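We emphasize that the prediction below concerns an isolated chain of 298 residues; any contacts that depend on oligomerization or on bound cofactors are therefore not represented. The input was used exactly as deposited, without trimming of termini.
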Amino acid sequence: MVHAARRALPLPASYAILPLVSSSVASSSSSRRVSSTSASTSSSAISRARSSSRCGAVGGGSQPTLDDSTAVYQGSYGPWSVEPSDVREVILYRSGLVTAAISFVLAASSAFIPEGNVVGDIIRQDRDFLYTIGAGGLGLSLLLIHIYVTPIKRFLQLLWMLGVCGSLGAYLTVAKPLNESLIDYVINNPTAVWFVGPLFAALTGLVFKEGLCYGKLEAGILTFIIPGLLLGHLTGLLDDGAKLGLLGVWMALFVVFAARKFQQPIKDDIGDKSVFMFNALPEEERKALLEKLEQQLE
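Result of the prediction step, given as a token string:
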């Protein structure tokens, strides 16, 4: 990828610095507002770039398709294209989300199935297993997610790790000695939300990023439903009926959210690949590139 970035150094004068908030920046004309990604190293010419709050891959005017392998996109630091490795990475990212969604919906469905139902009893016995599979799928997606600001990505991954460790610790130290599943223990002991909460905080961060970048209504609503239900359970402010209602909405929106990911072009989940290629360059080469861009903007 680094070598590809070196070949992409000649840039048009209308290049734009991408915003730092998300993993992708929406396709737009050269006159849109953009924010500087390299304030510490860019010169006065670079600082004349204007800011934008939208996300999405920087495109070359091609129609959105799932197969972008033949398209060439003009990024902030040069042209780039979708390679087979990019496609595999995006498919794995989306597969992780689908795995998390299916596991969660199956486990949560037991709350709506009456006691004594054969299917419901089977699901209740395996809820911890489904929780583990779902956490693994979320972890895979957080590993592969494209976010320009690395500390934000690392923070989401840290939350996931804290949630996994907290879940394992709660199960081994308090749930298992009581001969309860982790899920049952959290349901019966609201304070146990502190153990599993970071995992769902990481999920909330992911859906927030998706909602912000692509304007997905279901992702935006999930950003409030997930913490709302967990905090309502933790504080006791929600009765069982309200919690079941929010859980049902969460299940429905999570399915819609995961399913719609496969309707997006591959390039959307890649973002502006030239930004990641630029970030992989040594510091001296970055400075040289910024000087070149400064000259082209003058």
